[in-house]
Amino acid sequence: MKMLRDLLAIKRFREGQAQAVMRERRQAWLEAQQERMDAEALLARLLAEGVLAEQQLYADLCARMVRLREIEQVHQAVAALRQREQRQQDALDAAQRALEEAQQRFDQARVLHKEAARQTSKFIDLASSFASVEALESERREDLEMEEAASVVREREDWNTADGDAG
Q1: Which residues are CB-neighbours of 77 under 8 A, at least 6 positions away?
Q2: pTM (2 d.p.)
Q3: How many whole angstroms separate alpha carbon 34 and alpha carbon 25?
Q4: What CATH number corresponds to the domain at position 85?
Q5: Which of 60, 64, 74, 92 has most Cβ atoms within 10 angstroms of its Cβ?
Q6: Which pLDDT score, from 0 to 100, does residue 135 have?
Q7: Nearest by Cα to 20 from 113, 101, 120
Q8: How many domains does the chain have?
Q9: What span, in angstroms and rounded, lies between the C-alpha atoms of 18 and 70?
Q10: How far is CA 79 from CA 4, 53, 133, in A?
């Protein structure tokens, strides 16, 4: 029975480990989800700011007489805005990939925990079955011992009765 308790303790330990990994992976997934949302919000903000900045730059050019050099500077400024937006889009894409990977790791950890919990439950059922069989066997042995004791008592009574009849 000690062996069964030890094995059950091992099963529960493994289930606990799987649960801890699942919690860690869930936290990593939540963090990746937050990072993706933050990256998406920053991109939206940069796009909105970029549109406003570009409109202001061109409005400024259109409102006055400018030199060719100033037009080129505006084109460079707009290109810089687009590069900044593209870098943020790349960051968003990377955050999305990280989120998907975190989701896969979390799903895998969840499956492993479910399997560990199933194994533990299965083992508990097996141990319970074994304990029931052991209890029945113990009860059967007790019944046999009681029968044997009763048989000895009957034999003594029979001997005593036989002795009493003979004397």
Answers
A1: 53, 57
A2: 0.68
A3: 14
A4: 1.10.287.1700
A5: 92
A6: 85
A7: 113
A8: 1
A9: 63
A10: 71, 12, 80
